[in-house]
Amino acid sequence: MALQNGYSINSTPLDESGDTTPLLKKEVVDIDDSVPPQCCSARCNLAIMMFFGFSVVYGLRVNLSVAMVAMVNGTNSQPSLNSSIPQYSWDSPTQGLLLGAFFFGYLVTQIPGGYLAGHFGGSIFLGGGVLGTAALTLLTPLAAQLGPYWLFGLRALEGFGEGVTFPAMMAMWARWAPPLERSRLMTLSGSGANFGAFVALPLTGFICHSLGWPAVFYMCGGAGCIWAVFWFILVSDQPGTHPRISTREKHYIINSIGKDGGAHGWSVPLLPMVLSVPLWAIIVSQMCANWGYYTLLTSLPTYMDTVLHFDLRQNAFLSALPYLGGWAFSVISGVVADSLLEKELLSVTAVRKIFTITGLLLPAAFLVAVGYSGCSGVLAVTFLTLSTTVGGTSAAGVFINQIDIAPRYAGVLLGITNTFATIPGVVAPIVTGYLTKDHSLAGWRNVFCLSAGISAGGALVFTLFGSGKVQKWALLIKRHDHYTGAPCVGDKRLL
């Protein structure tokens, strides 16, 4: 849809053959003949706040993975400095259920969160989701003392609270991200997940060893509450309501994406969404990518404990190392993707497919190598690090593709895709627990090879059916006067 000053809300035209059309028309510029810089801008500050927010929520998500090693009275457990800190006799399947419990709740709020954030704005849902999850985390030691069923329920409630955060992020970027800056802004904000895992895993190991595992949940929960205070003070839902944004930046964002900023009304085109092949390509590919990601996120510390026999502090640091590379590659991939689009070297569809294929196939190859690395800690850690590092490139591919095919409904779509993509978070730890009941190398080899095969399948699906063009059902539809051709006022799709 053409907007004032010649900008376009569509990232690509409907005709795939014209997919190389630039996202913004270069001959028309904003209010003072230049694009406002990102440095110290309101949109950059929003990305940084989201970055730290997702660092916190991923810390809250993964801390149990390392703390579980200290909580369970296993054969390779390290002695605690405080003998009064309890340990529990939970078998491998029970541990798998507890590690996957978070995702049972996480599944429930994805779609409602995306829908409501798209209508009301995402800041209250993102901030409230982090705050609620952090507050519940403070109760973890009490729930563990009451029994595994209580801990399972608490972790599910934490997932319930956190489930709205990623859809809320997407809904906010639909209002804030100029089309040619989408990749870098969204990958920067979302990369907080990998950075949070990188920081939280070794920090959890250090805290468990020094202060005992209960302190992990008190400190992580407190950090989330503090972040939420700054979020509610500093962040606004859209450029038009931000008290500190410059007039120049506000006009640039509004003219780039339209003054409606991607917001939608109460009704959404559900049937066209269900029948959309590109949307199903995103769903399947994200499910496949997340199988391997969640397998490592929840079970890697256990693998390093039972197979590689690292002590708690080594375990925590080496489990975190892969996520440092993933964080760096996700940020770099966003910058490179935007550069390719801005220079019109590739279409949106081509860019998303290249980054998705790279981010799924190469990690699959390295996971197979992990399975055959035996008990060599050096080889295993090297291949695991390479797998997660190159996997970061998919952040500029399938994981932000929702805003390409339907900017107006980006929050809802992310809720839908993330609901399906969370299923591996529930199933993968349970499958891993049953495949590795005897803690054998063969069992873990099956875990890694299964993850690799699923990831490769996701790359194939997105290659065949993925798209970067705006879908017809996502366009703003105007009625026109029969005689003059002028747009008519009052179409409910424009409200």
UniProtKB/TrEMBL annotation:
Domain Major facilitator superfamily (MFS) profile: 47-470
Molecular function (Gene Ontology), one example: symporter activity
Residues passing through the membrane, by range: 51-72, 92-108, 120-143, 185-203, 215-235, 316-341, 353-372, 378-400, 412-431, 443-465
Record's subcellular location: Basolateral cell membrane; Cytoplasmic vesicle, Secretory vesicle membrane; Cytoplasmic vesicle, Secretory vesicle, Synaptic vesicle membrane; Lysosome membrane
Protein name: Sialin
One Pfam short name: MFS_1
Entry keyword annotation includes NADP: no
GO cellular component: apical plasma membrane; basolateral plasma membrane; lysosomal membrane; synaptic vesicle membrane
Domain of life per record: Eukaryota
Keyword annotations of the record: Cell membrane, Cytoplasmic vesicle, Glycoprotein, Lysosome, Membrane, Symport, Synapse, Transmembrane, Transmembrane helix, Transport
Free-text function comment from the UniProt entry: Receptor for CM101, a polysaccharide produced by group B Streptococcus with antipathoangiogenic properties.
Reactions this protein catalyses: 2 nitrate(out) + H(+)(out) = 2 nitrate(in) + H(+)(in); N-acetylneuraminate(in) + H(+)(in) = N-acetylneuraminate(out) + H(+)(out); L-aspartate(out) = L-aspartate(in); N-acetyl-L-aspartyl-L-glutamate(out) = N-acetyl-L-aspartyl-L-glutamate(in)
Record InterPro entries: MFS (IPR011701), MFS_dom (IPR020846), MFS_Na/Anion_cotransporter (IPR050382), MFS_trans_sf (IPR036259)
GO annotation terms (biological process): carboxylic acid transport; monoatomic anion transport
Topological relation to the membrane, as annotated: Multi-pass membrane protein
